[in-house]
Write a structure and sequence with these properties.
It is a single chain. With about 170 residues, the protein is of the alpha+beta class. It contains six helices and nine strands. Helix 4 packs across helix 5. The protein is globular. The termini are close together.
Length: about 170
C-alpha cells in the first residue's frame, strides 16, 4: 500500500492529492471488477468493467479530464451547467441508482490526435462531473491508455482489465 500511495504523492502536490478521492476496488468475480466511487454529500456510486485482455483501466482526475474534453473539438462536451439537460441524463441517474448489485459500466474513452473521444459513456460521465466526483476509472484501449494517463491521469499507471485480477497489481 505504501508504494501505491508514494506513486500518487510523487505525481500530485499535497493540495491536489487531498482533494482527490480515489475509487476503491471493492469486488472481483469471474465476470467483472467493481469500484465504489465517492460522490460528495451523496452515497457512493458503483462502476464496473468485464475481465478482458483488450481494455485498460485509467484513473482520471475529473477536473483535468473535463478541461481537456471541453477543449476537444466535436468531443460532445458541454459546460457543466448544461449537462443535466442532456436528453439521456435521466437514464444516467436511473443507472447509478441501482448500486453495487448492478454497477454502471465504465465509460469507453479513447484519445486520437490529442482529442478525447467516447465510444460509450458520455452521459454517465456528465453525471459524474455534475455530481463533483474528483476521480473515476474509465475503460480505454491499448492505443490510448498512455496518452489518457498523460492527459488526465492521477499518477497511477493504467492496468489491463484482465490483470486487475492479479494479486500483485494494486489499484
Amino acid at each position: 500500500m505504501w508504494c501505491f500511495m508514494q506513486r500518487v504523492l510523487n505525481h500530485l502536490s499535497y493540495r491536489e492529492f487531498k482533494d482527490i478521492k480515489l475509487p476503491q476496488l471493492i469486488g472481483l468475480n469471474d465476470e467483472k471488477a467493481i469500484w465504489s466511487i465517492e460522490i460528495p454529500e451523496q452515497s457512493p456510486c458503483y462502476m464496473s468493467i468485464h475481465k478482458s485482455p483488450y481494455y485498460w483501466v485509467v484513473y482520471v482526475d475529473a477536473t483535468r479530464f473535463y478541461k481537456h474534453w471541453l477543449l476537444t473539438k466535436n468531443g460532445h462536451c458541454v459546460k457543466k451547467e448544461l449537462m443535466p439537460y442532456d436528453y439521456k441524463y435521466k437514464d444516467a441517474i436511473r443507472g447509478f441508482s441501482h448500486g453495487k448489485e448492478n454497477p454502471v459500466p465504465l465509460a469507453d474513452v479513447s484519445v486520437y490526435d490529442n482529442r478525447i473521444r467516447f465510444t460509450n459513456g458520455v452521459t454517465r460521465t456528465f453525471w459524474l462531473l455534475v455530481n463533483e466526483c474528483s476521480c473515476f476509472p474509465v475503460k480505454t484501449d491499448k492505443h490510448s491508455y498512455q496518452e489518457l494517463v498523460n492527459i488526465a491521469g492521477i499518477g497511477i499507471p493504467a492496468v489491463r482489465a484482465d490483470l486487475i485480477y492479479d494479486e500483485r497489481i494494486q489499484l
